[in-house]
Sequence to fold (357 residues):
Amino acid sequence: NITDWQKSGNFDAKKLTLYLDGIALEGLKPKFSTDNTMITYSLDYSDDLNIDSQSSKSLKQSWRQLLKSGRSSVFDTSRKVIVSLGYESKQFPSKIEATLIVIDPYWYKCFGACILCLFGFFIWLCVTSDVLREPGEQPEGGRKSYSLSRFQMAAWFFVVLISYLFIWIVTSELSNLTASVLGLIGISAATGLGAAAVDSGKTADQQRQLDGLNAILKQNLVEEQILRSYIAQLKIDMGATPPPTNLNDLQTILATKSGELSGKNQEKTNVEEQKTNLIQEMKAKKTDGFINDVLSDCKGVSFHRFQIFSWTITLIVIFITKVCNDLSMPDFDSNLLALMGISSGTYLGFKLPSNQG
Fold:
């Protein structure tokens, strides 16, 4: 009986600390029944009425440690814990067991179903649309190839989104983003924007070249028509009766103009060939499968693409493992973020003379 215990000596029942599996939830204020025979604790650490503001941070850490410990897999929604009390940092022995609901099974299933639907919908978009494909016109006989920069941006978006929602469902904590997570999102976004800028610059340059070739063809057509008219008039003059006195001069001029016309025809053929090749270059590369697309540029598989792809996959695996084990967003070292930024910069640098997105 708490009342008898208080009367027995210098004892403050409000200092009783709840222990779950040996983890002290210090700062969690007990609530007593009217007859002082029962103590209750509210385990919702977001409830400011039950938590000392000075102990809030420590309590959150203890609560997160409790939630992540003893779970055999990320799919466990509850587990057994030993419940005991303590006083002044001393835990009282206990064998009382209780069931700790780590995640509400209903909301966990809803979360999983929503994530699967969202992911499935995005995969469908990737296959049927150009959301992850290179910019430009569709190539003949197939779809455009996949873009490495867009894949990286989409991958980090989904990883961070799913991790954020998962941590929120388990811990009810909304402010769980770290500076390194924002850095990763920023690097992926900068890579995507940089790649888009390079692609846009290439497209604009190719369009200028195409406009120049069209202007040359237009001018060539005008000059060709003038030459043909001039040659036709020369032939009329040369066939006059009696023959003109300057027939030899007219024949020389005819030969010269015929040569110029032949040159214009050859120039037209060359320009049209350049135009055909340029139009073909402006069309996006035909897909050769996702892996080949993201690892290859116009010259084949390239190391700088393999480098950024490998680092992206590696950090995603570490990220997901950290979230599942610690129920918190990882805080990557600044040197690791710098390495990721260097890989992205190298990719963009090599992309400048290339045509692959």
Q: What stands out?
A: The first helix runs from residue 2 to 7. The beta strands are 16-20, 23-24, 31-32, 39-40, 78-87, 90-91, 96-101, 296-297, 300-301. Residues 45-53 have pLDDT under 50 and may be disordered.
